[in-house]
Amino acid sequence: MPKLKTKSSAKKRFKLTATGKVKRAHAGKRHGMIKRTNKQIRNHRGTAVVFEGDARKIIKNYLPNA
C-alpha cells in the first residue's frame, strides 16, 4: 500500500499543538478591513483551536502523517 500524502493546502492552513489539537487562523483577515469594526479586527488576531469533531476529520483526511 502506498504512503499517505499530506494535503499541501492543509499543511499551510493548520498546525498541531503539543497535545494534538489543531490550530487555525481566523477567517476574514486578508482584505477589506475598512468594512470591519475595530472589535472584529482585534478579536481575529492570533490563532484559534478547531472544534474537536472537525479536528478529527482534518487529522484523518488531510494530515495523516502529523
TrEMBL record:
<dbReference type="InterPro" id="IPR021137">
    <property type="entry name" value="Ribosomal_bL35-like"/>
</dbReference>
<dbReference type="InterPro" id="IPR018265">
    <property type="entry name" value="Ribosomal_bL35_CS"/>
</dbReference>
<dbReference type="InterPro" id="IPR001706">
    <property type="entry name" value="Ribosomal_bL35"/>
</dbReference>
<keyword id="KW-0687">Ribonucleoprotein</keyword>
<dbReference type="GO" id="GO:0006412">
    <property type="term" value="P:translation"/>
</dbReference>
<keyword id="KW-0689">Ribosomal protein</keyword>
<comment type="similarity">
    <text>Belongs to the bacterial ribosomal protein bL35 family.</text>
</comment>
<dbReference type="InterPro" id="IPR037229">
    <property type="entry name" value="Ribosomal_bL35_sf"/>
</dbReference>
<protein>
    <recommendedName>
        <fullName>Large ribosomal subunit protein bL35</fullName>
    </recommendedName>
</protein>
<dbReference type="GO" id="GO:0022625">
    <property type="term" value="C:cytosolic large ribosomal subunit"/>
</dbReference>
<dbReference type="Pfam" id="PF01632">
    <property type="entry name" value="Ribosomal_L35p"/>
</dbReference>
<dbReference type="GO" id="GO:0003735">
    <property type="term" value="F:structural constituent of ribosome"/>
</dbReference>
